[in-house]
Specification:
Two copies of one chain form a homodimer. The first copy, chain A, is built from 13 helices and 13 strands. Chain A is of the alpha/beta class. In chain A, α8 links the parallel β7 and β8 (239-245). Chain A is elongated. At the A-B interface, α6, α9, α10, β9 and α11 of A face α6, α9, α10, β9 and α11 of B.
Chain lengths: 409, 409
């Protein structure tokens, strides 16, 4: 490589998005990049000429290791969709002017669907205008909804966090179960794809009863059926645990959170507020059945709990970062690196490179046959798919009792 | 010891309450107890003659280690306050009948304020009626609100979980901060004592900005002042993080959660619902200032996240369990084991034994001088007090990607 590399992070962060950044940095340096720039806040920051020289922050091997364990986007992130080329050519000229000025040879963007759209448009524009920069995407999303890749970096660690936390929530709930009934509804991220919610199934094992019911957005949610299932379960056990996706919808397409609580909840200031689906359903169960209920949300920790990252995930995130630089340096553009599953048992994976035009804006959901017929749990095939991705730990570097992160002031 | 030992767990669980149980078991066996019984669901289960022989579950040294890492009450817990002796002597007769039948010599109860009340009443009753059983309490509560002990087992691990999670929430929030303002309100457990909320201050360090404001229940909450402080902060920075206790109250004693959202929030079924204080304040900030806000609750994970337990805490919990058996075996009754801080730096602690009559039903809150004058943060003295308690890790035993727990079916 003769020129420089620039890398950005975009969209919702994950626990391992910085491991990909570390992989990009390492491979770029190894392949002779003179400078490795980092865009602040993705393409949005770049348009304001906000970038850093990563060598100012990653000064040694220890920094690389700490960066791999740092949650959220080290460089900052954005949700910014480029306009179509014919709609606003100026914005593209501006970007390429900055890239030329920085002598950029490889442009690497770590992100999800929208970010791959950015890679697609920039590489298209380069071809249209005869620019020589190469544009390669690195997959990232806890939602695991990107097409063509077996799974996305970030998903395994989020799944590990969710399964671990659910085991702890179940122990907590069952400790209090004497002579009373308790139904706990746990809300998990994922608007359209149930990959993350399905990972709740991992909690069940030799030392844990697991959750009783799992509802994904892929199957229409039937409120009557839901209440009926809980009634049945409460005949046999005093505690019931349910995992639902934030995105579950009724047959008519209305989100459960809108259909119920949302429409009636006016806050103290007269504003309509959406209650979460879990809060709404917990209230519904209490109203219909009369038992005590509890709503649990894991909030942004699902995507930022690097203290529970999976080793498989951290390593794969690092690997795809490096593979993207290699691909761009070897002349690929308009591509995304993917993870191919080479073997299930023992689990093995390798990187591949796909045309980003086939990926951008697509959305991969959970196959219907991996969900039970009644739509209330996932199948063994689902569990076999996800279990390898949560394996192994990547212990934090603990300083004074807390995980140390790499910090960009 | 010639007879048997019985041990129970009571009140809200912690990440290390089972480490105390392990300590009781180990010392009881070491001191020659023939049997170590565990009450199911505390004194409430015992009244229904629900108990187990712990040797059936803790079969070897590995089981002891796994028990130390198992969250929530292994034996199950209850919230059950014994009536005054003169009110209902029958219930006491029933308990002692069971204890006699099981040839109990030492009765150990792991819990908080209410549980120490149980120890007090049972030991009083034994003295009144000439019974020979000894009753000793083991402190436990994430709230850290027990009198006479320097701190309570469970507090350090909860503080470590909160500080770690807050660091991750801050990284997540700051990643998105370009060209927009975001105020995050984090709600932490603690109805009357702010010990846990104050631990949010630990997040600040070389690699983290920390939270900007901390509000404890010990100081009346002034809504106008609160909004004013946020307005000031937003002039200088785009993200503001605030930790509040669930128990913050206005000057007239009304809980913030009641004063605001609570009174206006009627759910879809026409029931009044209490919104959390964080949700209410996040809505308030959005209404008054107009910026984006986010409410985060850590829910029951604060007391059950054994995957992030502090080594100091696990070891002290084990130590006080053993010390309670030793005290009872040596003839103490109506006592609670406490932790004395022998030295701050290096941190050293030892157990002591206090009269439970001086402890039961008392509540230790954060000293006013450990809170800033404006009531919006804690002082260095507070931080120096809590920091030693989060030190060291106690890594989970990971099986197939998840922490293994000891499980009582």
């Amino acid at each position: 490589m003769n020129g420089n590399v620039i890398v950005g992070q975009s969209g919702g962060p994950t626990a391992v998005i910085n491991s990909s950044l570390a992989g990009v940095f390492r491979t770029a340096i190894d392949r002779g990049a003179k400078k490795v720039y980092g865009m602040r806040y993705g393409i949005q920051g770049l348009l304001d000429e906000m970038y850093v020289d990563l060598s100012d922050y990653i000064k040694n091997e220890l920094d690389v290791e700490i960066l791999k364990r740092t949650p959220s986007a080290f460089l900052g992130t954005c949700r910014y969709k480029l306009p179509a080329i014919h709609e606003n050519q100026e914005i593209y000229d501006k970007i390429f002017e900055i890239l030329d000025k920085l002598d950029i040879e490889c442009f690497i963007y770590i992100g999800g669907n929208d970010s791959m759209d950015t890679i697609k448009k920039l590489s298209d524009y380069a071809i249209l205008t005869g620019k020589t920069q190469k544009f390669v995407g690195v997959p990232k999303t806890i939602d695991n909804d990107l097409a063509l890749t077996d799974h996305t970096p970030g998903y395994g660690s989020a799944a590990k966090y969710i399964a671990t936390s659910i085991k702890e929530v179940i122990r907590d709930g069952n400790g209090f179960s004497y002579r009373k009934q308790l139904v706990t509804v746990i809300e998990i991220m994922g608007r359209n794809a149930g990959w993350l919610t399905g990972a709740a199934a991992l909690a069940k094992g030799e030392d844990c009863e697991g959750v009783d019911l799992i509802y994904l957005p892929e199957v229409p949610f039937d409120t009557q059926d839901f209440i009926e299932e809980i009634r049945e379960l409460l005949k046999e056990k005093s505690t019931v645990f349910i995992a639902i996706s934030e995105g579950i919808r009724l047959a008519d397409g209305t989100y459960v959170s809108e259909a119920g609580g949302g429409s009636d909840y006016v806050d103290a200031f007269g504003h309509k507020q959406l209650t979460g689906s879990a809060t709404y359903l917990a209230n519904l169960i209490n109203h219909e059945i009369g038992c005590k209920t509890r709503a649990v949300e894991f909030s942004s920790l699902q995507r930022s709990a690097s203290h529970l990252a999976s080793r498989v995930d951290i390593n794969e995130a690092f690997m795809v970062g490096g593979a993207a630089v290699k691909a761009a340096d070897e002349g690929d553009s308009g591509k995304m690196v993917v993870i191919d599953r080479v073997s299930d048992d023992p689990y093995q994976s390798a990187t591949g490179v796909y045309d980003v035009h086939k990926i951008a804006n697509g959305e991969k959901t959970v196959p219907r046959e991996w969900i039970t017929e009644r739509g209330d749990y996932v199948t063994e095939d689902f569990i076999d798919y996800v279990r390898p991705l949560i394996q192994g730990d990547y212990p934090c570097v603990m300083v004074n009792g807390l995980p140390r992160h790499l910090y960009l002031k």
